[in-house]
Amino acid sequence: MTYRIALIPGDGIGLPVTEAALQVAQKAAPGLLDCVTFPWSCEHYLQTGRMMPEDGIDTLRGFDAIFLGAVGWPAKVPDSVSLHGLLLPIRKAFVQYANIRPHRLLPGVEGPLRKQGFDILCIRENTEGEYSGAGGRVHVGTPDEVAVETSIFTRVGVERILRFGFEQARKRRGKLASVTKSNAQKYSMVFWDELTHQIAADYPDVEVSHYHVDAICARMVMAPETLDVVVASNLFGDILTDLGAAIQGGLGFAASANINPTRSAPSMFEPVHGSAPDIAHLGVANPIAAIWSAAMMLDHLGAADAAARIMAAVEATTAQGIGTVPGQDRTEVITAAVLAALD
Ligand code: NAD
Ligand code: IPM
Ligand code: MN
């Protein structure tokens, strides 16, 4: 059995961390992954005028999974062009509505909260909400200019992400934190709260808490051990998961899976972080987030043993103090340590 994987290394540190993740995945699951690399990136945009070809989505549809490094090089291509030309359309077209982002402290990592262990699974809505793309600008450049960015929350979209969150909570410690800003946003977030209450009736075994997004930010820093599964809208989930990365010790540790739970189209795996232009030429990008994302991909494809072996190797690596301090170890040193720990 082999799985066909579309690799999109993208920009900046997306390239070295993708290479590292694939080396580790190939070693953990020899012969399982048959990879095709696509050079879609800001560089590709500058050469062709497109982030991906017109039939890019159709091309990707034939794969079992997509692995992406990072997209964006704002000095050359505006983010509004690069992200709307590649990453965001893939999430939408393939209905990868559940973005799963685990946050826990790896052994040996001196995160800001080292004394408190925690294990949070953030479930981010990934196809609508604040990222609907609906809106516009009028009277551009005049004193009367107005910009509108409309959030769209559908019953189908909110219900399915909430149910996904409840299911995950059931498999873990039975606690679900639903995140809104329903004290200020009286339509979308009140709707989200109502649906949470309704769906909770189907999951009497799950303990539900409601947090405003500002309050849960403070809780993630001060008492992360009190949280289990956290479910949030697209934008709130985006912000909470960089915070989650920070309490893990840095962006280099946070993994993510963009899942289509019905499996009607490929899912996509990528670290939470971006292309990190500030360190892209230094050779010190931490590949652990990408390696962890590759483990999530193997798990999704049914290779749970290989995924577990990768995570054990990552933990053995950080436990030795390798890759634990941002910028301290070179990418290839961390990768070599994980590869060695796989033996
Ligand atoms: P970023 O995540 O690229 O970087 C934020 C900070 O974290 C930087 O200081 C960076 O050096 C550090 N960092 C990130 N990953 C790291 C790693 N693996 N090891 C060590 N340090 C790491 O966020 P940004 O600077 O806001 O964005 C840069 C570009 O990436 C932008 O174009 C942005 O839109 C894009 N972006 C893309 C994705 C994606 O493709 N999924 C995600 C986030 C940002
Ligand atoms: C992420 C990123 C993207 C997002 C950006 C680059 C559009 O920050 O995957 O977390 O906001 O979803
Ligand atoms: Mn983000």
From TrEMBL:
It catalyses: tartrate + NAD(+) = 2-hydroxy-3-oxosuccinate + NADH + H(+); (2R,3R)-tartrate + H(+) = (R)-glycerate + CO2; (2R,3R)-tartrate + NAD(+) = 2-hydroxy-3-oxosuccinate + NADH + H(+); (2R,3S)-tartrate + NAD(+) = 2-hydroxy-3-oxosuccinate + NADH + H(+). GO terms for molecular function: D-malate dehydrogenase (decarboxylating) (NAD+) activity; magnesium ion binding; NAD binding; tartrate decarboxylase activity; tartrate dehydrogenase activity. Its cofactor is K(+); Mg(2+); Mn(2+). Keywords: Manganese, Metal-binding, NAD, Oxidoreductase, Plasmid. SMART domains: Iso_dh (SM01329). Residues 4-338 form the Isopropylmalate dehydrogenase-like domain. Its EC number is 1.1.1.83, 1.1.1.93, 4.1.1.73. Pathway: Carbohydrate acid metabolism; tartrate degradation; D-glycerate from L-tartrate: step 1/1; Carbohydrate acid metabolism; tartrate degradation; 2-hydroxy-3-oxosuccinate from L-tartrate: step 1/1; Carbohydrate acid metabolism; tartrate degradation; 2-hydroxy-3-oxosuccinate from meso-tartrate: step 1/1. The keyword Oxidoreductase applies. InterPro entries: ICDH/IPMDH, IsoCit/isopropylmalate_DH_CS, IsoPropMal-DH-like_dom, TTC_DH. PROSITE patterns: IDH_IMDH. It holds the Pfam family Iso_dh. SUPFAM superfamilies: Isocitrate/Isopropylmalate dehydrogenase-like. Has multiple catalytic activities. Apart from catalyzing the oxidation of (+)-tartrate to oxaloglycolate, also converts meso-tartrate to D-glycerate and catalyzes the oxidative decarboxylation of D-malate to pyruvate. Belongs to the isocitrate and isopropylmalate dehydrogenases family. This is D-malate dehydrogenase [decarboxylating]. It comes from Gemmobacter fulvus.
